[in-house]
Write a structure and sequence with these properties.
372 residues, alpha/beta, FAD/NAD(P)-binding domain, D-Amino Acid Oxidase, Chain A, domain 2, seven-stranded mixed sheet, globular, binds flavin-adenine dinucleotide
């Protein structure tokens, strides 16, 4: 029997879920608040791990397309001291495909493929029912019932309250993001500093990270410990005022490193919030969560990977299992909670070490992940 299934959100979790169902000929309604795929900038680059994001793409039949698009050389990572000294310069071996990078926009387009997303569907509430499933309410007043609603609607999920009263809390670490275009032609010095992948500079309670995307685009992240209201006297839309504040925060760092902050034409404020480590809930018939909606964690290379593998696994078990939806969801949730709980612990500890009063901690963490 074909169940009526909806997924809220067309991020990595929702699209992977829908794409794997689609591959098995199983219908699913993808409900997305954005009015169109390109309504907002898609964001930076993602590294997809062999056993997580790449496994999910394999289940979607998209691994070869990913391999053609992704950038294995983007795994390169350079660590600098605040005086500009290169402390580590790690490059992947020629056939290393463990964690290649892909632009988020390229990944979205790859997953979208033939999917018929319902754009502009702003979900305001999901009301779990009984054996009839769950009701989805939209901002325009409409509503629709489904046998299963999967909340893949990210950090501030509107689906989550149907199963859990927990909300994200601030980690104490903020990111301010800026971008550089055509870095090789316009900023060759920075292009050399960043190399093929990423460069990170760690100081006391702050860090600067730059990541190369495709086409010479670079994302720069200023990361620092601060209260959530650190910007009260600052107009975040005033690019020069934000730049001046950041240059003040990183005062004394080597001039070539500070160049990373001098050329961006816009700054995006991203205070880092997380859900409690090992967030779980009591099973609610007809509703589940996946991805950031279920286990928002610090952005240390796991969130999209988990979101995708969860989407692929639940879709596969619905499409190929014996047809008991509730049992498929129960098994899925138990697996998700174990794996995501482990990663939530790793990334929470990682954030403490990467933006730390003791910058040597960041280097020690790097050496654990990339032993020479
Ligand atoms: C700076 C940064 C760098 C990162 N780098 C990496 C990395 O390298 N590797 C990695 O694995 N992870 C990384 N992450 C984490 C990763 O981005 C997230 O974990 C991932 O995007 C989660 O996917 P998702 O599908 O669960 O949610 P999202 O990507 O947040 O997608 C949610 C979707 O739901 C839609 N939506 C929201 N509310 C509603 C609503 N009410 N109605 C309908 N639709 C709605 C949104 O518009 C969106 O399309 C990074 C995060 C940040 C901030």
């Amino acid at each position: 029997m074909r169940h009526r299934i909806a997924v809220v959100g067309s991020g990595p979790a929702g699209l992977t879920f829908a794409r794997v169902l689609h591959r098995h000929g199983y219908p699913v309604a993808v409900l997305e608040r954005d009015p169109a795929p390109d309504a907002r900038p898609p964001g930076g680059t993602l590294d997809l791990h062999e056993g997580l994001g790449q496994l999910a793409l394999d289940k979607a039949g998209l691994l070869a397309d990913f391999q053609a698009l992704s950038r294995p050389e983007g795994q390169a990572m350079r660590i600098l001291d605040t005086d500009g000294t290169v402390l580590r310069d790690w490059r992947p071996r020629p056939h290393d495909r463990a964690n290649p990078e892909i632009d988020r926009g390229q990944l979205r387009d790859l997953l979208l493929g033939p999917l018929d997303v319902r754009w502009g569907r702003d979900v305001t509430q999901v009301v779990p029912g009984t054996r009839e499933g769950a009701l989805v309410r939209f901002a325009d007043g409409r509503q629709e019932a489904f046998d299963l609603v999967v909340g893949a609607d990210g950090a501030w999920s509107r689906t989550r309250p149907a199963v859990s009263s927990v909300t994200p809390h601030y980690t104490g670490v903020t990111l301010v993001e800026t971008s550089l275009d055509d870095v090789d032609a316009c900023h060759p010095g920075l292009a050399r500093l960043i190399g093929d992948g990423s460069v990170a500079v760690h100081g006391v309670n702050r860090a600067l990270v730059a990541q190369r995307n495709s086409g010479g685009h670079v994302k720069v992240y200023a990361q620092f410990r601060a209260p959530l209201d650190w910007h009260t006297s600052l107009d975040l839309a005033d690019v020069e005022a934000v730049r001046a504040r950041l240059l003040g925060l990183f005062d004394g760092w080597a001039a070539p490193v500070l160049e990373l902050l001098r050329h961006g034409t816009a700054f995006v404020h991203r205070p880092l919030h997380v859900l409690p480590v090992r967030h779980t809930w009591t099973r609610v018939f007809g509703v589940t969560l996946m991805g950031d909606a279920a286990h928002l964690m610090p952005p240390l290379g796991a969130g999209a990977n988990l979101a995708m593998v969860e989407g692929a696994e639940l879709a596969e078990s619905i499409a190929t299992g014996p047809g008991d939806l509730d049992e498929a969801v129960r098994t899925f949730e138990e697996q998700m909670w174990i794996r995501a709980g482990r990663w939530a612990e790793i990334t929470a500890a990682g954030l403490e070490r990467l933006v730390s009063p003791e910058p040597a901690e960041a280097l020690a963490l790097f050496d654990q992940v990339h032993p020479s």
